[in-house]
Amino acid sequence: MLESILAVLHNATTLLFGVYISAAFLGVRMNRHNVFTLLIFSGAVGIIYIAAYLGLGTEGTEKIYPLIIHLPLVLFLSRYYKYKPALSVLSVLTAYLCCQISKWVGLVAYAAMPQMWIYYAVRITVTVITFIILIRFVSDATAQLLQKPTRSLLILGLMPLVYYVFDYITGVYTTLLYSGREVVTEFLGFVLCIAYILFLFMYFKQYEEKREAAKRAGCICVIVGRPLKEEGLGLIECKALLCRRFGLKQNQKVSLVGIGMGNPDTCTIEAIKAIKEAELLIGAKRMGESVLHSE
After folding, report:
1. What's the pTM?
2. Which one of 79, 128, 139, 252 is CB 3.0 to 4.6 Å from 24, fit for a cystine?
3. Cβ–Cβ < 8 Å for 118, 109
4. What is the pLDDT of residues 129-151, one digit of tens each?
5. What are phi and psi of 238, to 5 degrees?
6. Rounded distance, CA 67 to CA 69, Å?
């Protein structure tokens, strides 16, 4: 009973993960409207998935999964959110690649404790954690990367595309992946090497193009390095030091007050109030004397 419940939750979280991450990678903001819209879409394709499962079983549903889940998702992102089909495909493939994180961790847990309920529980947990990390720290950067020129996108999409095709051909439609053949196990390493070489080539080519353009325009190319680490106090440390030295309290409110030509009569009432209520005044000597004189 527990295993069946966890299996359903696993399939549901994986589906939601793929839908929401694909949209987020394109730059779809996760506001209330979009969250609800994507949830409705997930429910619709979920019903199709259940119908396929009841009619074809687990193996048959896995084989048509790209047609009933991935293809509708690409069409939905392209038609509803008006993204280019190529970008939608790349986003879906990238989200599919990210699903392999929970798959591998789940297999490790199953190898340690060969019980399916543990496998499903671990996959659900890792899927949720991965989802949070990707949404908070990765999705915005990915959305910006997808705005790069077509040549750059070809490099970005090579690995997700090859892995997608490789996974379905060797693991779903055939059993080559589990045959132990060396040519199969070494294939991903080969693709990774090719992708890395192409990335270096494209990066160097773009750098050369930019340098030539700067040269034609008479500009000097300057490579900005990482700033040197300076010694001194940070903002929080400086606040703590001032509080200890002058007996002040940690007050986060800071007022920037202008006094015009230095005549207190030209200050606004709000400025005078802020000056009188301040625990610490920082400014030029002339300004400070003018304020003190007004009191």
Report:
1. 0.68
2. 139
3. yes
4. 999 999 999 998 888 888 777 76
5. -65, -40
6. 6
